[in-house]
Hints:
By secondary structure, the chain is an alpha/beta fold. It folds into two domains: 2-184, Flavodoxin domain (Rossmann fold); 190-300, no CATH class. 34% of the residues lie in helices and 9% in strands. The chain contains 13 helices and five strands. The chain has helices at residues 14-25, 54-57, 64-75, 91-104, 131-137, 163-167, 172-181, 183-186, 202-205, 210-213, 224-231, 272-280, 291-300; strands spanning 2-7, 31-36, 78-84, 117-122, 127-128. Helix 1 packs parallel to helix 7. The longest helix has 14 residues, at 91-104. 31% of the residues are buried.
Amino acid sequence: MKIAVLFASNRHGGRHEEIKQMMSSLNLPVEYDFIELADYDIPHCKQDCHDCVIKTEYRCQRDNDTEIILKKLTDADMNIIIVPLYFPYPSKLMALMEKLLNSCYRTENRSLKDKPTALFLYCSVKIVDETQLKILWQQYLMDSGYSFTEANYPYLNGSFNDELNCKYNSDVTAYIKDFLLGLEIKSKIESRCGLLCSKCSFRESHNCGGCVETNGHPFHGECPVAICCQDKGFAHCGECPNIPEHCGETDCQKKNENRFTPCDTCGKTTCGKLHAYSYTDPDHGDNPPGARVQQCKKWVKGNT
Length: 304
């Protein structure tokens, strides 16, 4: 697998050099293409060049470097964007994004469409919420349906939460290292809740992409379990300390008109959402009960 790593700083060295060395030291079946914006000359768009061909040839005649960078990003199997927090972002990154907007924003020329992408933002003292930058970048990754208010593209790294700084001691290098080490395991994960999508009859009959590929929105709409898992920054529910066991209730009185037992407000289980789906759903629940919970625990151990 080839990964293009875009370092968005205007200068060399510092944290980016640390991250590069960390990546190179990992024993992963990966070929890295390191792209340092400090090595490139990316002028801002003048918008009034009389011989402009950006709308017809999707390139700037006065900027070859953006074409070089775009080709590197396009040729890679995955892109990792690593950005230091400036005010708000490094000037070269802003110039690059301006040029990319012209060169691959148009529907007929979206060369980065559906590109697997992870985006990290940090400052000198902590990991920073990258949501706003993801909102801007997703315009290059989607034909339509992209939001201007939320990151609705399925980025490879989950939504930011404050627990990340506690988990990694505010160290973005440790965060990215854990992300890379988890790529191989995550490639085997079929869902957030432990359901094996490869064995699900709805995959083909309902053209379901599953909750991982659709960012928590399979064929039936938003899945509360998947959204809960993603919002907490977990790859699957097995990583959550609140993964439930069966509550042991044999005569639950909470069944609704569809014979489904809503466990969300029940104090007998640590996670009502997943417990209800795995143990008490009469139509689409597990057989045997709790199968997807056990599958999540296998993923935690690295088993499939």
